[in-house]
Amino acid sequence: MFRRHKSSAAEHKKDFAVHGAALPGPQNDMRSFFNLSQLVLSAGQLRSPPILKHSKITYFEVEILDAQSKRQICVVDKVPPSSSLLDVKHKFHKACPQWNPSRIGLRLERNGPYLKDSVSIQSLAVSSIITLYFTDLGQQVSWTTRVAPNQILALVLPEIYGLPFRLVLTGIYAEEESTESFRHPVVHLACFCHCLHYVRHLLETLFVHKISGGHTPLKNMIKGCAFYWGFTSWIAYYVNHPRYTPPSFGNRQVIFAALAFLMCEAGNHFINVALVQQNHSGNKASFPSPTYNPFTWLFTLVSCPNYTYEIGSWISFTVMTQTLPVGIFAFLMAIQMSLWAQKKHRLYLKKYNMGALRKTAMIPFIF
């Protein structure tokens, strides 16, 4: 028994020696210290901050060609997607200083419409390269510079009713005719209505319409001034002529036409205000709807009631004065505004889907 127990104890010591579980020595202490230091270092190691992945910005390249010859004029590169067409025009001006941004006309197609300055470049892009066609629009003036002289001088020229056509009649009419001092009341009423019309236009241009940032060719300004100034002088000459005859139906015709003129002027003003208020509110998804103001109820019948009221004013003025120059002027204005109304009506049909409403462009149920 004793011998067997001893041999088992010897075997137990041998197993401990084989597995390295003997009494600790200097070598084991060094190994433990090394393992502990490695553990501390691995636990305390600082992690590198994660690398931020920036989103890639795709820049566009705008190739500008001459609309007539298709010759490349320049290439505007590194255009951000958030840029507008006006930004491209400014970069184009830096590359070609002879063309001011206001006289640069850019189109997607050679015979297509000119693009607005507010158009986003990203909305035009089909690929990273955008091709635009350039047209020199010529010398430009601001809309205020164009409209104001038309309205101001057309407003001042009726005062020629009171200067050359009244005070200096001897130099305009025959001497025996200019001696007649009596003027029918419709002459004074016509001067008042004519001035009222252009005062309204001028005030709306300055304070209602947002057109001061736009530009128009200088030749259009010259044509507009010649048209308005010429007809105003012609109308003033006839209405203030000493041999001017009043309307056929007398005061009843004059009063009826004057009331219709004032109603059309008021309606035109309220329609313009309603259109501007819709633009300011940002609600461009629906066609302007009538309000509690009765003058705006014409929106239910026509697409361009402002043109309807404008033509109504000049027809009333023609009936009130019963003169040929006013009738010719009203006829030409009706033709021009009918063209504008048709163009806007087609745009409204596409934009607001008004086909089911069966509206006409300018004249209710007719045109």
Q: What tags apply to this protein structure?
A:
367 residues; alpha+beta; Ubiquitin-like (UB roll); 2 domains; four-stranded mixed beta sheet; two-stranded antiparallel sheet; 6 strands; elongated; disordered N terminus
Strand arrangement across the biggest beta sheet? 2-1-4-3
Largest sheet: 4 strands, mixed
Whole-angstrom Rg: 42 Å
Percent of residues in helices comes to 40-55%
Count of DSSP strands: 6
> Mean pLDDT, nearest integer?
75
Q: What percentage of the residues does DSSP assign to strands (E)?
A: 5-15%
What's the helix-strand series? HHEEHEHEEHHHEHHHH
Low-pLDDT stretches: 1-10, 12-23, 158-163, 166-170
- How many domain regions? 2
How would you describe the shape?
elongated
Number of helices: 11
What class would the helix/strand composition place it in?
alpha+beta
Gap from first CA to last CA: 131 Å
Family: Belongs to the steroid 5-alpha reductase family.
Subcellular location: Endoplasmic reticulum; Membrane
Keywords: Endoplasmic reticulum, Membrane, Oxidoreductase, Transmembrane, Transmembrane helix
Domain TECR-like N-terminal: 60-136
Could you describe the 3D structure shown?
Residues 216-367 form the 3-oxo-5-alpha-steroid 4-dehydrogenase C-terminal domain. Residues 60-136 form the TECR-like N-terminal domain. It is a multi-pass membrane protein. Its main location: endoplasmic reticulum. The chain has 367 residues and is of the alpha+beta class. The protein folds into 2 domains: 60-138, Roll (Ubiquitin-like (UB roll)), CATH 3.10.20; 147-352, no CATH class. It is 52% helix and 9% strand. It has helices at residues 2-18, 26-44, 85-95, 121-124, 143-156, 175-178, 185-207, 218-239, 250-281, 305-321, 324-352; strands spanning 60-66, 72-79, 104-107, 129-136, 140-142, 215-217. It has a 4-stranded mixed sheet. Strands 5-6 form a two-stranded antiparallel sheet. Strand 1 and strand 2 (72-79) form a beta hairpin. Helix 5 (143-156) packs antiparallel against helix 7, helix 5 packs parallel to helix 8 and helix 10 packs antiparallel against helix 11 (324-352). The longest helix has 32 residues, at 250-281. The protein starts with a helix and ends in a 15-residue tail after the last helix.
